[in-house]
Specification:
Length: 300
Amino acid sequence: MILRRTATFYFVLIAVTTPFFTIFLMMHKPDLSEETVLVQKLAELQERLRHAEMMNQQRWQDMVSLQRAVHSNETSILDLQLPTVFHNCPLSSTSCLTFLPHLASDPEAFRPALKVSAGRTAARMVLGVPTVKREVQSYLMATLHNLIENMTPQERDTCLIIVFIAEIEKEFVTKQAAEIQEEFSEYVDSGLLEVVSPPASFYPDMDKLKQTLGDPLERVKWRTKQTLDFAYLMMYAQGKGTFYVQLEDDILSKPGYIQKMSEYAYKQVSLKKDWLILDFCQLGFIGKMFKCVDLSKFIV
């Protein structure tokens, strides 16, 4: 009889306390979503710190170069101007002079021929969109609409789209920039959208290029110009943000593309995986993500 009462007591106790215990566990279980956000924030801070260190190193190198020029007995006007131009210009990768010696005689070769910018810096993600003059149809406007529409309002405040007009024909560049400003005035003014084009002096004499890979001269010219276009765009973008994504002017993105790329990139950082490129598209050079601090490896 006593044994039966004892068993009944424990059964009732378990029946009464189980719901409360379950509720307690549900209320106190670890919030994995908050933990994920925290890990992403730490990874983001880590990459932003690396970017700040890179910019500080570049400014220090500019200062050292200027001091050496000032204290040198063989100082020339060009020696004094060149570091100053690099310091004031967003293109501060002086090592390019090793591979493009024609630029040494023209400090202005690094300064954009056209620049439309509200001055946004410290962007979380920079999207580079090169565009050229097309004989049939341009998809640039549709591409920009797509990229912007598939961003959240917060992403529009923290990202940067750089349209690089890779042409030196002044009339075309001016017209294209004006069309972008008119169509996307809100986003140009907010700093989300920038337009930049290179000076003609940035490019070498294309008729004097050495033919390689058995290609005809026209093909060599096309390859060389495309490479230089990417280099200029990367130099311009390097100091603008944390991550850089190479795109084209005729693509379509999916809703949430910024968040998905960001989460994946920060996950690799939080896992301490050493990566140089993250590939989000199988087509050519489209959708390739780099850390902005690593862009100099590709520029030179």
